[in-house]
Amino acid sequence: MSGDAHPLRRSTDRAPLPGTRTVSLVLTTRPGDGRPGAALDRLLDQVPASVREVVLIGGPAGAGATHGGLRVVRLGDWDFTRGDIPHAALLAATSDLIVLMNADGSMSPHEIPHYLHYLESGYDFVKGSRFIAGGDYADYPLSRRVGHRALLRLARRLYGQHLTDLWYGFCAFRRPFVDLLDLREDGVELGAELVTHALHYGLRVAEVPSLELPRRHDPSHPRTIRDGTRILGALLHERPHNALSRLAHGPFRSPSG
User: How far apart are the C-alpha atoms of 106 and 33, rounded to whole Å?
Assistant: First the structure.
């Protein structure tokens, strides 16, 4: 199959040969981050040379058009009453490959080359996981862990995929994937919605270990019930046509058991 005719390959397509592709980094700065000008500069200094542009959601008003050779595109503040800001940022990215991560210090740009390696090795959607060997998390309340496990169990049954981290927002994918998205959610569940879209379209999905660091700014106050309900809605909305049949045949078993 031609890479131009099928920019989003299905799991049955042949993997492309590695090549030189441009990379955009989309950074999300949430309300409560304190408009961290100096912290943002430090984070931008850590962006690997393979990234040619940064699309910044929110952030200091003085975020310039360039930073150490990087092209920096600043969009408006992230309004949690709207769902189009994250999607607008993804659409603003102009490179072949897009990396999405938070700018609150909980995710490290030093991990980006690992994500890109898997994209260049034939995967179409690469997501970070805090729960596989090499990954870890700084703060994850018990109630949130319990809810996450329940949603993971459902996701495995609906999609037949053995994922370990459903809503972690550090991920990378090919630019044509953005054209398929119709994102209406925001906040923590954006990562889960991207994952369910990738599973819905049958893309090659890889998980890589990621270390979630303590946030440099104000700690987040996730609403477990609200977030869990919205993620559940995304899972059910994107479910494949054979999901009910898979549910009827009992628990999903991964190849490794």
Answer: 12
Question: 178-225, pLDDT tens digit by residue?
Answer: 888 766 544 446 777 788 888 888 889 999 999 998 876 555 555 667
Nearest in space to 128 (alpha carbons), one of 97, 86, 100: 100
What sign for the dihedral angle of Cα 44, 48, 49, 50? negative
Is residue 92 within 8 A of residue 55, CB to CB? The reply is yes
**Contact criterion met (CB below 8 Å) for 164 and 131:** yes
Mean pLDDT of the chain: 75
Per residue in 37-70, pLDDT (tens digit) is 677 888 889 999 999 999 887 655 555 577 777 8
- Sheet of 51-57: strand order equals 66-67, 70-74, 51-57, 23-28, 97-102, 171-174, 125-129, 205-209
Q: How far apart are CA 67 and CA 24, in angstroms?
A: 14
Q: Of the candidates 192, 170, 157, 175, which has an alpha carbon nearest to the alpha carbon of residue 126?
A: 170
Spacing of C-alpha 162 from chain mean position: 17
Handedness of CA 30, 32, 35, 39 (dihedral sign): negative
- List all residues 6 or more positions away from 246 whose beta carbon is below 8 Å from its beta carbon: 157, 158, 160, 252
Q: Are 239 and 159 in contact (CB under 8 A)?
A: yes
Assess contact for 55 and 89: CB atoms under 8 A. Answer: yes
- Any bridge partners for residue 129, and if so which? 209
Task: Give the model's pLDDT for residue 119.
Answer: 94
Name residue 54's beta-bridge partners: 25, 72
**Pick from 78, 79, 124, 126: which is nearest to 100 by CA?**
126
Q: How far apart are CA 132 and CA 209, in angstroms?
A: 6
